[in-house]
Design goal:
Blueprint lengths: L2 E6 L6 E2 L7 H7 E3 L8 E3 L6 H10 L1 H4 L6 H10 L5 E7 L10 H13 L4 E6 L6 H14 L4 E5 L5 H10 L6 E5 L6 E4 L2 H17 L3 H5 L5 H14 L12 H21 L3 H26 L8 E5 L5 E6 H6 L1 H11 L4 E5 L5 E5 L11 H11 L3 H10 L8 H8 L11 H8 L2 H16 L6 H10 L2
Parallel strand pairs: 1-5, 1-7, 5-6, 7-8
Antiparallel strand pairs: 2-4, 3-4, 8-9, 10-11, 12-13
Helix pairs in contact: 2-5, 6-7, 10-20, 11-12, 11-19, 12-15
Length: about 475
C-alpha cells in the first residue's frame, strides 16, 4: 500500500538556526527568539500579533532564504516515516477573512521547498476558525476519505489543540499512524491509538448487544470472526438454522422452534419492536397449541411414525396420507381430524346454507375453526394443560370474543390496520414484560420437557470475548 504523509503546520514550524547568516534588517524585522521547544533556533515573530505579515514577507524572500531556514519538526517526521511517499499533504489555516495567526505562507514556503526536493505536495487550507471542532471533524473526515486507499501517516505536532484533537477523533478506526514529537528533543515516535479504539469499539458493541443489534455490529470495524457470530445470531433469529431441521419429526422440531421464538420475542421487546412482540406472542401460543395437539394425537395413536395423521377413508380403511402439518393447515382435513378423534367434544347446527357448523359442546358459542383459540377450548374441554393455559387466558382476557391482545394485533400492521404499538400497550396485557417472559419460559420448559437456553445472550458473551 502506498504511503501519504499529512503535515499539520503551525507558527513554530519554520525556524532559523542561530548560526544562519541573513541580512540584519530581515532578522530584526521578522524573527524573534524561540521557546524551549525550538532550542536555540529563532522563529517568526508572533508577539506583535503580525505573524501573517511576517510569514508573507519571508515567503516573498524564498529564493534568498530557502537554504537558510529549516523545518526541524518536518525533518524529524520524514526521518520517522521514510521518504518513499506517494504524496505529502500540507494542512494549515488560511481563514476567510484572514487572521493574523494564519500560517498559509509557511505552508507555501514548505510546499515549494519540498517540491524542489522531489516530493509531490498538495496544500489543503483550513478556511474557518480552527476552534470549531465539528467543522474540523468534517474537514478531516473528507480528507481521510479522499486518501482512503493509502496508508496515512500524520505529523500533527503543529496547529491548534482543536486541530490535533479533530485529527485523532476523525481518524478513529482508520488505521492512521500519528507521528508525535518529543517537544525538546524532537525525537519522533508513531502511535495508532489502537488500544483506545479497541476500548471505544468495545463500549459501542456492548451497548448494541444490549438490544441484540447484530446487523449494526456487523457494520462496525469488527473482526471477521465477530461478523460470523453476528450472522449466526441473525440466522437463529430468523430460524435459518440447523437447530430446527426440516427432516426432524414435528414434535422435536416444534419444541426447538418454540424455544427460539420465545428468545426472539425477548429480543423484539429489547429492540423496541413492540408490534413484533405481539406477533411473537400470537405465534408462540399457536405453536404451543399445535404441539400439544400433536402429542395428544400421538397418545391416541392417531399419528404414524412418519408424522402422518391416520384417518378412515370412504371404504372404512385406516390410512395415513397427510402429514400433521398438512392436516392442520387444511380446513376440511383439520375438521375431519377433530371430529374423528374428539367427536364427543363437538356438536353442530345447520346453517342457513344448510351446512353443518360445528361447535364445542361445553362452549356452544365457540365454533370449530383454525386458530389458537380452538386449541384452548379443546384442552379446556379435555381438562388438560390448565397451568400453561392460565397465562394465555390472562393474555386473551379469558378468550373473550373481543380482547385487548387480538384488538391490538388486528389494528397494527401485523393484522389489518396501521396503528402503532407501544411498550405500555404490551405491558397492559402482559404486566411487567420480563416477569411475564420468565413465567412463560418456566411453564414452557415444564410442558415441553426441555431447557430453553438463553441462546442470544450466550452469543453476546461469545462476541464480547472475541
Amino acid at each position: 500500500m502506498e504511503k501519504v504523509l499529512f503535515l499539520s503546520l503551525g507558527n513554530r514550524d519554520l525556524q532559523l538556526p542561530r548560526n544562519a547568516s541573513i541580512p540584519i534588517d530581515i532578522f530584526n524585522k521578522h524573527f524573534e527568539l524561540g521557546s524551549m521547544d525550538t532550542g536555540e533556533n529563532y522563529v517568526l515573530k508572533k508577539t506583535d500579533k503580525q505573524f501573517l505579515a511576517h510569514s508573507e514577507a519571508i515567503y516573498e524572500l524564498y529564493e534568498e532564504l530557502a537554504g537558510l531556514v529549516c523545518f526541524p519538526m518536518v525533518d524529524a517526521t520524514l526521518e520517522e516515516v521514510g521518504r518513499d511517499l506517494a504524496q505529502i499533504v500540507i494542512i494549515t489555516t488560511q481563514q476567510e477573512p484572514a487572521d493574523s495567526q494564519d500560517c498559509q505562507y509557511v505552508a507555501l514556503f514548505l510546499k515549494k521547498w519540498l517540491e524542489q526536493n522531489g516530493f509531490s505536495v498538495v496544500y489543503k487550507p483550513i478556511t474557518f476558525p480552527p476552534i470549531h471542532l465539528d467543522q474540523l471533524m468534517d474537514f478531516y473526515n473528507e480528507l481521510y476519505d479522499q486518501y482512503a486507499r493509502y496508508q496515512i501517516f500524520f505529523g500533527n505536532s503543529g496547529g491548534t489543540p482543536d486541530m490535533r484533537a479533530a485529527t485523532h477523533m476523525a481518524g478513529m478506526f482508520r488505521n492512521i499512524r500519528f507521528v508525535t514529537l518529543q517537544a525538546r528533543t524532537q525525537e519522533a515516535s508513531q502511535k495508532n491509538f489502537r488500544s483506545q479504539e479497541k476500548r471505544i469499539l468495545q463500549h459501542i458493541v456492548d451497548n448494541m448487544l444490549k438490544v441484540y443489534d447484530y446487523e449494526g455490529v456487523k457494520n462496525l470495524p469488527v473482526s471477521d470472526r465477530v461478523k460470523e457470530k453476528c450472522d449466526e445470531a441473525l440466522d437463529l433469529y430468523n430460524l435459518k438454522t440447523n437447530i430446527v431441521r426440516g427432516d426432524e419429526g414435528f414434535g422435536e422440531k416444534s419444541k426447538k422452534a418454540i424455544a427460539l421464538l420465545l428468545e426472539n420475542m425477548k429480543i423484539c421487546f429489547h429492540q423496541g419492536r413492540y408490534a413484533d412482540v405481539i406477533g411473537r406472542i400470537f405465534r408462540i401460543e399457536e405453536a404451543v397449541g399445535q404441539y400439544l395437539l400433536y402429542t395428544e394425537l400421538k397418545q391416541r395413536e392417531g399419528i404414524s411414525d412418519q408424522d402422518k395423521v391416520y384417518r378412515i377413508d370412504s371404504k372404512g380403511k385406516k390410512k395415513a396420507d397427510k402429514s400433521f402439518e398438512q392436516t392442520i393447515a387444511n380446513g376440511e382435513s383439520s375438521e375431519a381430524m377433530y371430529l374423528h378423534y374428539f367427536q364427543e367434544e363437538f356438536t353442530f347446527i345447520i346453517s342457513p346454507k344448510e351446512e353443518k357448523v360445528w361447535y364445542f359442546v361445553k362452549h356452544p358459542d365457540v365454533p370449530m375453526k383454525a386458530g389458537k383459540n380452538t386449541f384452548f377450548f379443546l384442552f379446556s374441554a379435555l381438562k388438560k394443560h390448565q397451568d400453561l393455559y392460565q397465562i394465555f387466558m390472562r393474555l386473551n382476557d379469558n378468550y373473550a370474543k373481543v380482547n385487548k391482545l387480538t384488538t391490538l394485533r388486528n389494528k397494527s400492521y401485523l393484522g389489518h390496520g396501521f396503528n402503532g404499538v407501544s411498550e405500555s400497550d404490551i405491558e397492559e396485557i402482559t404486566g411487567n414484560f420480563l416477569e411475564f417472559y420468565n413465567e412463560l419460559k418456566a411453564l414452557l420448559e415444564k410442558v415441553l420437557n426441555i431447557v430453553i437456553e438463553p441462546i442470544f445472550d450466550d452469543l453476546n458473551e461469545q462476541i464480547k470475548n472475541l
